[in-house]
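Kindly go through one protein, given below as sequence and tokens. The question is how this chain folds according to its tokens.

***
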Amino acid sequence: MAKQPAIARTVPALRRAIAAWRQAGETIALVPTMGALHVGHLALVREAHKRAQRVVVSIFVNPTQFAPHEDFGSYPRTFEADRSALAAAKADLIWAPTAAVMYPQGFATRIAPEGAALAGLEDKFRPHFFGGVCTVVAKLFLQVAPDVALFGQKDYQQLCVVTQMAKDLDLPLKVVGIPTVREKDGLALSSRNAYLSAEERAVAPTLYRALKTSAARIKKGEPIGRVLDDGRAEIAMAGFALDYLEARYALTLAPLASSQDGPIRLLVAAKIGKTRLIDNLGV
């Protein structure tokens, strides 16, 4: 039976564990999650083991990144299953604070990111989101004080925003993006995939197919506007309500002046039924 990772639920308990590792001269990696762990999360844990001697996985469903109409209440919470998965993945510690620990009475500070956080992608549809993400991630970075933190590239705009935040605030760690883990049919792994009905699940890989086709056509030199229009039509025809399909400069998510403004990243978000899916692909 795999050794169970330690669990810290208060900042003092977390810092005692961190201090013991630091005293022993050990390096620390952090994998921030909201739980409901899947193979993609565990790939981050495996990569974390390659980059540090100790691995901390945070599990916290962050209320400040959900709007009132979103799925905070129904977001999957599977702590015991997550704990077993992290034991098998040899995580050293689970940082599992409550909302009262992260946002105690009187909490009054928020981070208001700009740059990639105002790119007109996720922020256009979830204007509250990146402020909540940056505030909680900054707290996690300060609480755990890792040498490296690992994030999945599926949430590409988030990765750009968090990377810039760490740089701007002179936080002494490296933020690393890990390639998206996919199902065999291309669907990006996500905790929200559990919301999909069987029929919706069959249609969901359309997003990745549209990204692949669009990327291939742009590489061949076809006009980006026409390629994106065709991709949007394909996604809508499959039954999605499309929020966006865009081509952006990969390093800043700024709009492209021309197809020569590489590297290019394609980003998509669309809703099928009650489930909103996002994905992205480099060109």
Summary: The longest strand covers residues 241-249.
